[in-house]
Design a protein that fits this description.
The chain is mostly helical. The chain has a single domain, classed as Cytochrome c-like domain (Cytochrome Bc1 Complex, Chain D, domain 2). 39% of the residues lie in helices and 5% in strands. A two-stranded antiparallel sheet has the order 1-2. It has a two-stranded antiparallel sheet with strand order 3-4. Helix 5 runs antiparallel to helix 6 (180-195). The longest helix has 34 residues, at 199-232.
């Protein structure tokens, strides 16, 4: 019910400032979290491996990531389907072939696609972070079906997803300690970027608009005053009719 619902607090994200960019080291670590923890159940079908290039990975790295996956392709000349290593142009592979298979594997619950999840949920990355780290025991008198879990941030509090992250759930390549909150923060930053890949560019353009305007507006204001000064200082005298 609503009385048990918690609203996520506002966390001080390094990208929440008016002119702050996303933390690209965090995006890189967050992709690893998605790949190793989330991708077993959650698709990100609107993201392709090429999208990572220049954001979190080099072209060679993204190519190597794509090649780890076998992709069904075809038909070939003889009409047969075949598998091949993934390419940069391929989208992230889906864990299930269809929604029925996804529900069957998850006690009837459908794991949502994560491509735009941050912008699709009220509270954005604050909500996702709170949800991932907010699992707790149900309060006295609240009982849940066996396959459900108590989460005060989830609408209705009974969520089908078991707690997905914990301390040291994976090891980071850059040596960052993989605490539960660090893992949650990184995957939220990655999902924020996936939902809004234009984020950094938009803020950079905003900065340029501010800089150029701050130069042009005083110039135009001065010119306007200069032009109008002739009219503003004119004395108009009416001669009474004879």
């Amino acid at each position: 019910g609503h009385e048990l619902e918690l609203h996520p607090p506002s966390y001080p994200w390094s990208h929440s400032g008016l002119l702050s960019s996303l933390d690209h080291g965090s995006i890189r670590r967050g992709y690893l979290v998605y790949k190793q923890v989330c991708a077993a159940c959650h698709s990100m079908e609107y993201l392709a491996f090429r999208n990572l290039v220049g954001v979190s990975h080099t072209e060679a790295e993204a190519k190597a990531l794509a090649e780890e996956f076998e992709v069904l392709d075809g038909p070939d000349e003889s009409g047969e389907m075949f598998t091949r290593p993934g390419k940069l142009s391929d989208h992230f592979p889906k864990p299930y072939s269809n929604t029925e298979a996804a529900r069957a594997a998850n006690n009837g619950a459908l794991p949502p696609d994560l491509s735009y999840i941050v912008n699709a949920r009220h509270g954005g990355e604050d909500y996702i972070f709170s949800l991932l780290t907010g699992y707790c025991d149900p309060p006295a008198g609240v009982t849940l079906r066996e396959e459900l879990h108590f989460n005060p941030y989830f609408a209705g509090q009974a969520i089908g997803m078991a707690p997905p992250i914990y301390n040291e759930v994976l090891e980071y390549e850059d040596g960052t300690p993989a605490t539960m909150s660090q893992v949650a923060k990184d995957v939220c930053t990655f999902l924020k970027w996936a939902s809004e890949p234009e984020h950094d560019h938009r803020k950079l353009m905003g900065l340029k608009v501010l800089l150029i305007s701050s130069i042009l507006i005083p110039v135009f204001y001065y010119m306007k005053r200069h032009r109008w000064s002739v009219l503003k200082s004119r004395k108009i005298a009416y001669r009474p009719p004879k």
